[in-house]
Amino acid sequence: MFFAIRRFIPRMSRLAQCRFINKGHSLKNGGLEQVVSAFRSVCGEDGVSLSQAVREQHGRDESVHRCCPPDVVVWPRSVEEVSALAKICHHHCLPIIPFGTGTGLEGGVGALKGGVCFSLRNMDSVLDLHEEDFDVTVEPGVTRKALNSYLRDTGLWFPVDPGADASLCGMAATSASGTNAVRYGTMKENVLNLEVVLADGSILHTAGQRRRPRKTSAGYNLTNLFVGSEGTLGVITKATLRLYGVPEAVVSAVCSFPTVQAAVDSTVQVLQAGVPIARIEFLDDVMIAACNRFSSLSYPVCPTLFLEFHGTEKSLEEQRRSSRRTGGQISAGRGTQRHEGVCGRLGTTPGILHRCVCASVPPPSDHRGHQKGPNPEPPHRANCRSCGGWEFPLYHGAGPRGSG
Ligand SMILES: Cc1cc2nc3c(=O)[nH]c(=O)nc-3n(C[C@H](O)[C@H](O)[C@H](O)COP(=O)(O)OP(=O)(O)OC[C@H]3O[C@@H](n4cnc5c(N)ncnc54)[C@H](O)[C@@H]3O)c2cc1C
């Protein structure tokens, strides 16, 4: 595929130099001082570090992969600086490793062959918000929580939520998804344009400069070539992203199942029934037990689905009813546990409703997920004051912004 692209777009031949191609780069051979002083002339004394602690901090992410520190870390402040730094690297045959917030789970920031880490956290402006067109352009240091807090008063939000407070350009680079993907899609569906600095320092706009097109059948889809490129094709210095209206109401629910298969079947049925569910998250009994311990909760220890519905109050009632009809018995309402509860996730947006759903509960199961007897009385049934179901806190005035 790469060969085919090269035939049509000569510029693409420069892409792959961002990583790993330089077998004998010159930093180790006495070129260090010269290169570092060139870097300092671009981004100042404070914008370059050779310290071991800093290099180690940038040599690993949240994954299990071992730390591979770069030789130098630089902090550019603008696309021009990124371009100038890339030109220096190109001249000295140095690998470039872009660094967002280091929350990746694939070890992508590891400098396997040394090189220069471009930490992009100083480029953290929200540049262009078009409320009426539902899009925004951000620099690479802007994280998804920072963007959603910036959007707080606009009635808009960016829903792709991989759990961590990652940088949006890092999310584009890894094609991040998350629990909201079931309704809002992944980064692939939500990036409209990217500004990218290629390995030789040239600047590319994947959909044209300042363009924010919805149309996707207009020649090569360069945007989606870079989405998911894991920092190997260029440094993303701007991303134009699709935004959505904050839903009027959000309802969360928890469904417990006797077996994993029952949870899976129910998920398929909910989707087949066309219920426009926003989030579905599955936790098996082991994870539920861990969450109970970590957050002092008392969920039944069995396969469990966490669901979230977005819409108007009326439509949410219908969605909840449809979900129950498909076999998943909604036992109670609360947020997805992976994000440490709905309160933390929804706590920053005024004017939106979040409340619990009290309904019937499924039969309890033992620690292996086996149902205990034909129709036993669930142990938590008596807890709820209004319906006898499992009772959860009632949250009002919160919305999906800053979800984490
Ligand atoms: C608790 C937890 C839960 C998660 N859950 C999910 C999940 O459900 N779904 C999911 O998809 N992901 C999930 N992730 C991983 C998530 O995809 C990453 O956290 C995020 O996308 C990476 O963003 P970052 O800014 O931290 O990038 P980094 O970790 O800094 O970098 C990741 C990769 O992108 C490259 N990169 C970073 N910035 C740029 C840039 N500006 N230009 C070019 N390349 C760049 C890096 O070189 C590296 O290869 C989870 C992570 C955590 C910690």
Describe this structure as you would to a colleague.
The chain is α+β, with helices and mostly antiparallel strands and 404 residues long. The protein has four domains: 2-119, 2-Layer Sandwich (Uridine Diphospho-n-acetylenolpyruvylglucosamine Reductase, domain 2), CATH 3.30.43; 126-245, 2-Layer Sandwich (Uridine Diphospho-n-acetylenolpyruvylglucosamine Reductase, domain 3); 249-340, Alpha-Beta Plaits (2-Layer Sandwich); 349-404, no CATH class. The chain contains 13 helices and 16 strands. The strands form four sheets. The chain has a five-stranded antiparallel sheet with strand order 5-6-10-8-9. Strand 5 (126-130) and strand 6 form a beta hairpin. Helix 2 packs antiparallel against helix 4 (79-92). The longest helix has 14 residues, at 79-92. The protein is globular and about 70 Å long. The structure holds flavin-adenine dinucleotide. Flavin-adenine dinucleotide binds at residues 61-62, 97-105, 108-109, 120, 140, 162-164, 166-167, 169-171, 173-174, 176-178, 230-231, 235-236. The site of flavin-adenine dinucleotide has 32 residues, from strand 3, helix 6 and strand 10.
